[in-house]
Amino acid sequence: MSFFEDKRIVVTGGAGFLGRVIVNKLKERGCRYVFVPLIEEYDLRDRVTIEKLYKETKPDIVIHLAAVVGGIGANRANPGRFFFDNAIMGIQLIEYARQFKVDKFVCVGTICAYPKITPVPFKEDNLWDGYPEETNAPYGLAKKMLLVQLQAYKQQYGFNGIYLLPVNLFGPGDNFDPQQSHVIPAQIRKFIEADAGGTVSGSLDNQSSVVTLWGDGSPTREFLYVEDAAEGILLATEKYNKTDPVNLGAGFEIKIRDLAELIAELTGFKGRIEWDTSQPNGQPRRMLDTSRAYEEFGFRSAMNFEEGLKRTIDWYRSTLNG
Q1: Is the pTM for the entire model greater than 0.85?
Q2: What pLDDT score was predicted for residue 205?
Q3: Cys-Cys link to 236, which of 177, 240, 263, 291 (CB 3.0-4.6 A)?
Q4: Displacement of CA 192 from its chain's centroid (Å)
Q5: Which structural domains are found in the chain, ordered by start?
Q6: Which of 139, 225, 240, 316 is catalytic?
């Protein structure tokens, strides 16, 4: 019998980008009971709803993925909402998991919790060495408080909760909404629309198309393919039971400017890229030290970055043709 076969598992955010992959992988591992609370019936900001969820499902394990997220623009426009919704969801889910004697709580945090200036590669021990990058600090700090809560609950109640810190995810099924998407889907959409003479360039001539991107292109980012992230989370769910946070990443960084040029090449865009330096860059550099994940539960990413981009682009084009 696999670890997951006889477990009752609730996956918050299980209908989302990462959640759908995790739910599928749980079923592949023989898990017979996976429950995904949908927002239409379960508002996870509401205490009564959370009590109802736990009474009805009686989970052994909760994997908490649900979050209110977005790119730099969404974070700047909604700092209060991003703080409150993310904090209240996690705090109450953990508290009632304790009260309902859930065996294990797996909390998926965010790399936005790291200080704005953090030595590269980011080590988990650097997490408290400064204030997060300002544009996403409310979101990052709200999620970071859940680590504090889990560590406090372990100390006082013996509650088994773990905290994982994935880098930016990408892959088929990502969110391509221009108001909410992160950098990879946002760039893919812009280049494809410009290539088609859409709203980005306003021109039917691909050679003269222009795509404008925020900042100056100098920041670096690390990206983890969604299938790899799901594997890492399930490995930790099965094998990791310490309160120390754990990074999940691919172990490389790429400049946003180089990323844009690569996506332009892969989408066939031959126009011009302009950089709007009046807009923020975000955190200067991001790359994780992933040694703890390997040492503790044997996780390493498997997907080649360029191949992952190709699969993501192909998937998005298929949604346009469908």
Answers
A1: yes
A2: 43
A3: 240
A4: 24
A5: 8-174+222-252+286-302 (3.40.50.720)
A6: 139
